[in-house]
Amino acid sequence: MAKITKEDALRYHAEGRPGKLEVATTKPHSTQRDLSLAYSPGVAHPCLEIEKNFDDIYKYTSKGNLVAVISNGTAVLGLGDIGAGAGKPVMEGKGFLFKIFADIDVFDIEIDNKNVDAIVETVKNIAVTFGGINLEDFKAPECFEVEERLKREVQIPLMHDDQHGTAIICSAGIINALELSGKKLDEAKIVISGAGAAAIACANLIISLGAKKENMIMLDSKGAIRADRNDLNKYKASFVTHRNVRTLAEAIAESDIFLGLSQANLVSKEMVKSMAKNPVIFAMANPDPEIPYDEAMSVRTDLIMATGRSDFPNQVNNVLGFPYIFRGALDVRATCINEEMKLAAVYALARLAKEAVPESVSKAYNATNLIFGREYIIPKPLDPRLIYTVAPAVAQAAMDSGVARKPIEDWDQYKLELSQRMGLDNQLLHGLVVRAKQNPKKIVFAEGNNLKVLRAANEVQHDGIAVPVLLGNVEEIKQLISQNQFDLNDISIIDPHAKESDGTRNSFAGLIWQKRQRKGITLEEANELTFNRNYFGIMMVDTGMADAMISGVTSHYGDVMGPALRLIGPKPNLNHISSMYIVMTKKGPLFFADTSVNLDPDVQTLVETTLLTADEVRKFNIEPIIAMVSYSNFGSVKSSEHTKALDRVRQTIDYLHKNHPELIVDGEVQMNFALNKELRSQKFPFTSLENRDVNTIIFPNLTSGNIAYKLIQEIGGAEAIGPILMGMKKPIHVVPTECSVREIVNMITIAVVDAQ
Ligand SMILES: NC(=O)C1=CN([C@@H]2O[C@H](COP(=O)(O)OP(=O)(O)OC[C@H]3O[C@@H](n4cnc5c(N)ncnc54)[C@H](OP(=O)(O)O)[C@@H]3O)[C@@H](O)[C@H]2O)C=CC1
Ligand SMILES: CC(=O)C(=O)O
Ligand SMILES: [Mg+2]
């Protein structure tokens, strides 16, 4: 990552609207009526309802999703006591992270006061506004009393994040680091630099996970916390060491773990060298760690190193926790954030780091090595799974420990809602996944040795969506599986070139020859073709050894489609096959056809495409409302020798209106009139589309269909799933070479549902 300069950071904050947050409205406000509803007189009604029943505040106001990030600026990052106003960029930053990672709205509140009574009184008095309270960057020891007292005063989730958020992430990282270094927490010698908010909380949480207090040495700005010191507050005093050490250099020698929650540049290379074998260093001071990552790593190779920084591996930062801890707590309307909820977050994070990383995360970090190991012990902040992994774990723990006032009943639905909040998913795909899981089918992957394909196979097998069969060299595939730590040990792998496949290949060769002997193919040629994995996979589907095939990541479209058409071909009543893309727009899914097969369709092909598409759309439990688009509206362009494509559309519509009156289809219509029903019904009120939302678009030819879906994918940012081949006797699907793992997974899901 390129280095960030002071100028970059200042410009980022100053340009445009200064700061990083604004307030947005959530209700219509374009008419006088809207204003009367939003404010006086309409607003009086929700006020009176809340007066009658306080819980209605969650129904009629933003309280349930609103968190206060509150600070007095006394321990801002590792910058120290810089004052309430100077801390505001950090608090706005925290609001920013709450929003982007968990869709939680934040007001940042800076309290210009260091007096504990005044702080407690202020927070207590404003708590009614909020669903939760995140205390931030209050220094120790005052922070402990502030939090303890406020927890008694308010009945909403409240947490001092520098204490507990940090402790949760640090503990998850420590669990995984020790697993890799082969050490036990209850035997580990631990040095903690810092005896403030974060340090004390981290020490306490790892103790509750098994670490021994007697194996710890804690240091503050004056050196080791020893029994002979008379300047210790009660929190520090509980960590006194009886070993005869005073300095960090003495304490760190032969230790197993160093936790830094103090200040930059306190640890030297010599100190790193002096640690025990396979040491773990978490230098978490911000913005600069106790020792820079590179410096520590240059000293020894057996070190597992983490910092609070995003520009090095293993960022231990509380951003991995607070958005999701509060999300889970708010969603069950918890009365507090208790120990059970914190531990649930620890284990959820530690577990997640061991799961295969989605391709989107590797891409976001431009990394190929995000595999559980020394350089990846903790999930990455941009991992989209965090929200639906950590938040439900916290919510469940709140319910189990009896502090949830609004328990979650349908966990699948809750996880879907979490994904939807973040725009990660939509109803249609979720419905398909549920259906696929009910009856997972055997899917053969022609390109079993491709990493993207393997990742997709790993995901669908793990999620129970499909039973993958991989084609390719067994040794090569097994090596890729183990290198990438995919959970695919029991997967079936078939190598068409292997001796064991001879029998299957011979029978496929015979079948191919039977099908193609009058098309000039000899038995020898047929035999040769069976070594090709696309032919082999197609024949597996043809003979029922698999339910569907996916290929295309490394093959040309024609190299898969050609043999598929020749060997399997269209269903008996059809002359053509056709293809469809599902384009996921903000307004819901749109079905586009034909996008990939028929270049210049005649009327019969257009009719078949429309009927096939209608059938396919119904499979998603959606009634197709079909517009046949063109550059003309219902006859506005006169027919001539230059309007052949348009005339074919018109003839198709005539045919469908006569022969399929049950189908809701009309045209020819321009795209804007197709998609905008108000516009359409004003100008063309006579159409059989009536005042309906069109969800299916039939294009006059492949050129326009293909351009349209790619345009909306690139410029509109819509996700597109396809091409879904329609009309084949058996399902064969060809994904585009540039497709992502997510697109392959989507395609497999559809293939499974198609094959059910
Ligand atoms: N990575 C992450 O996610 C997080 C990192 N942090 C970082 O942890 C650090 C501490 O934050 P926080 O606990 O909130 O702040 P506090 O002010 O509560 O604590 C700071 C502690 O650091 C100690 N300290 C200062 N100088 C030294 C020194 N030379 N040697 C040893 N200890 C020293 C202080 O000692 P004394 O008691 O004597 O003053 C104090 O105990 C900050 O750098 C912060 O950025 C915090 C939260 C999250
Ligand atoms: C990350 C954070 O909260 C801190 O450094 O204070
Ligand atoms: Mg902080």
From TrEMBL:
Chain ranges passing through the membrane: none
Residue ranges of every copy of the Malic enzyme N-terminal domain listed in the record: 18-151
Gene3D superfamilies for this protein: 3.40.50.10950, Isocitrate/Isopropylmalate dehydrogenase-like, Malic enzyme, N-terminal domain, NAD(P)-binding Rossmann-like Domain
Active site as annotated: K94 (proton acceptor)
SMART domains attached to this UniProt entry: malic, Malic_M
SUPFAM superfamilies: Aminoacid dehydrogenase-like, N-terminal domain, Isocitrate/Isopropylmalate dehydrogenase-like, NAD(P)-binding Rossmann-fold domains
Stored InterPro entries: Aminoacid_DH-like_N_sf (IPR046346), Malate_Decarboxylase (IPR051674), Malic_N_dom (IPR012301), Malic_N_dom_sf (IPR037062), Malic_NAD-bd (IPR012302), Malic_NAD-bd_bact_type (IPR045213), ME_PTA (IPR012188), NAD(P)-bd_dom_sf (IPR036291)
Gene Ontology terms for molecular function: acyltransferase activity; malic enzyme activity; metal ion binding; NAD binding; oxidoreductase activity, acting on the CH-OH group of donors, NAD or NADP as acceptor
Gene Ontology process terms (BP): malate metabolic process
Malic enzyme NAD-binding domain sequence ranges: 163-399
Keywords, in A-Z order: Metal-binding, Multifunctional enzyme, NADP, Oxidoreductase
Binding site for NADP(+): V76, L77, G78, L79, G80, D81, I82, G83
Residues that coordinate or bind a divalent metal cation: E136, D137, D162, N286
Names of required cofactors: Mn(2+); Mg(2+)
Family: In the N-terminal section; belongs to the malic enzymes family. In the C-terminal section; belongs to the phosphate acetyltransferase and butyryltransferase family.
Protein's UniProt name: NADP-dependent malic enzyme
